[in-house]
Amino acid sequence: MIGEAVSGRMRRAGLYLWPIVPPAMLAVIVTLLVSHGSTYMHSILILGLINLLFVVGLYSFSGTSGVFSFGHIGFAAIGAYSAGIFAIAPGTKRELFGSMPAALIHLHAGTSISTLIGGCIAAVAGAITSVPLMRLGGLAASLATFALLIIVHVVGQNLNQVTNGQSGMADVPITTTPWRALAWCLVAIVVVYLFQESRWGLRLRASREDEVAARACGVGIFNERRLAWILSAFVVGIGGALYGQFLGTFNADAFYLSISFLIIAMLVVGGRNSLAGAVVGCAFISVVAEGLRRIEAGPHIGPVHIPSRPGLGAVGLGVIMVLVLVLRPRGLTGGREILWPFKRAIRGRLAPVESRSVIAVAPASTQDGS
Amino acid sequence: MLSIEDLHVSYGRVPALKGISLEVDAGEIVGLVGPNGAGKTTTLSTVFGLIRPDSGSILLEGRSLVGEAPERIVRLGVALVPEGRHIFNTLTVSENLAMGATARSDRAGVRRDLAGLLERFPVLERYYDSPAGRLSGGEQQQLAIARALLSRPRLLLLDEPSLGLAPVVIDLVFDVLAELRNEGVTILLVEQNAARAVELADRSYVLRTGEVALAGSRDDLQVAEHLETAYLGL
Amino acid sequence: MHELIQNAIDALSFGSLYALFALGIALIFGIMGLINFAHGELIMAGGFALVFLGHPGWPLLILGTLGVTVAFALATERIAFRPVRGADPITLLVTSFAVSYLLQNLAQVLFGSVPKTTNLSTSLAESFSIGGVYIAKLDVVTVVATVVLLVGLGLFLGKTRIGVQMRAAAEDFRMARVLGVNANWVIATAFALSGLLAGVAAILLVAQTGVVTSTIGSSPVLVAFIATVLGGIGSLRGAVLGGFILGIITVALQAYLPLELRYYRDAFAYGAVIVMLLARPQGLIVAKSIVTRV
Prior knowledge:
Largest interface: A-C, 59 and 54 residues
Oligomer: heterotrimer
Structural class of chain B: alpha/beta
CATH superfamily of chain B: P-loop containing nucleotide triphosphate hydrolases
Strand order of the largest sheet of chain B: 6-7-8-3-9-10
Number of strands of chain B: 10
Number of domains of chain C: 1
Distance between the termini of chain B: 33 Å
């Protein structure tokens, strides 16, 4: 009996402490890889961690609310440009960017501050865009986020005074190290985890499962979604800022369709309904993508040289994503990490609902008086 | 005609039917009553192939229906009038009826049957070219039944036809069902309105939490306490 | 005045093309709840078909291209979309996104990224004038083709047996199956029709620009989405209306935006749509069957 009490308490303690384990493991793995790896390995690691920020950011909105966003990389672009403007020394800016107004040229800050500013400005953009977007229903909102990506891209390519147009930013101090990236990742994971377990996060996830039922319970998802959107914009913005300070030179094309697809693939393959899914997906796809990249470059297998074909890696990624979606639509983690047995029991009692009823719901607007 | 034996159905890990058995003989009306959540709709949905059972058998005149797609089952002579009527609001009454004949290929026969149905349900003739969404609840129920009948079913499954209808309309609908039985159509009727269902049906089963709690003929069940006991599980 | 008429004709022409794009998306969505990102790649396939068919004369060229797009559409349905049928909307959406990405890059691997040229633009680029207004032959062809397709589609859905089945399935798929409608046939028909629309769109699009690349489908698909959302998801008429309105907005912006802002034309267009959606989040035409009340 004493044994039972002890193990019961240990189990409960384990339940509380468990969330710490994955981030700790991440820190350990990164440390190992950094100390034993080459410079090339460091670059891969940094990219992986930046992608992790993107995926975790995307998850914090799409995974919790169930509204899929195709445009989040737009926030990364905003973060990257903002941080870049602050990070580059005024003298350099004056030399390189002819059309930049003086106000922007004088801005200067250290690495971490610049990164933080990048995230904050992205968050502001999130706040502004949340006004129109949250009024739209799930599917319409998803398509609108796609439009958002296009808009950011168009502006980025043409707003010469701020972004230097198609030539883009150059000479951004390359300050992103694996440690900085890891630090920001850990912060993001903790923050997003706290959010999803918070009152607002729980309400959001309830609305994700069944929008009609949630509204019937009085969950006005408008505000919760807005919060998630802004948070996700911040996290993705940070990622963008780090990315900009890793590339050193970039323009809006670096934040467009292929990276958007990569991030979405990571979230979907890992399991879009859980934070663990975001992390697992990122790790898995990073490894696979690296493998595909090596094949694309034309490896030598013994005496045979496979010719390099650009784009083959992307095809491979696409195939993998389709396979996962067909065979295991909930992703590698199966959306696990969420215990919602109450909901499942309820759902079991009802007749099988056509999946379309999820979108066949009037959007969360105040028009219909509810 | 229809023989269900030891049927087990569950939604994920939640069991909905825990081994029910029932028989429907040709030319009779069998009622399936019980409180909410008892598994009545599940039973009909499973018979019609919309849900796969975990185990058990469903035989239609000796032929197994388990694993068949609904499109196939319709062509075997079974028609389902689901709960909530489910008529196509944006289609006209005539188009709704035409949908009922989807499984049939004999145009002349369909035309004849259609004429007969319009006679039996004159309101449908009146609104023949109007969008079905304009009909009242009772009229829509008539349309749903007519549509199901157009497939010339040997076995008609009805799920809560009286739901949301005024008593006088329920009378009409149940009269039609009695007429159909006299014309040789076999009917399995699921109803919340136990009293009326038991009165109409030749035999009834009472379902409670996935199991058959009581079964018997009209006379047996109309002894009131039996029904109450079965319903409340006392 | 002439300029106004010119712009009006442009708007009509663009609107027609956009309506075709949008309809291809709306058809599939109505039946399956799937927003087909890969529709753009159907157009791409049509484009490459045009390139490789060469110039065997118009009838053969058109038939060949349409044959390719329809076959492609049916293939994507069979291989990629049938296995995920009935899945939740996000899975469907992301699957079509993945298929689109895959096909686009596959085309790049096979055909390279250098744009391919066709001979289409020569005869259609001619214009004739009526009272001082220059009308390109292509504009006329675009509008006429669109009208013919719209009327044909309307007749098909309204009068034919399988058309009624499609409309029923679009409103209530489960009930249609209960009545005996063959799910596979109905969905295949919808995809075939969308392939047809994509093929025509490809011909008109390539006739305009003269070149084909692997990314030629991206822009039409985005236009199609926006038009569908604007017009009202779930409504075929809404999709057409949305297409025309988007066409009008685009041409209006192109004509009347000050020069420096021209580059942002697309940004403004989509911004305008988002503003419109604020006023009517469900789009302009609400499909009656779609709204569920709490």
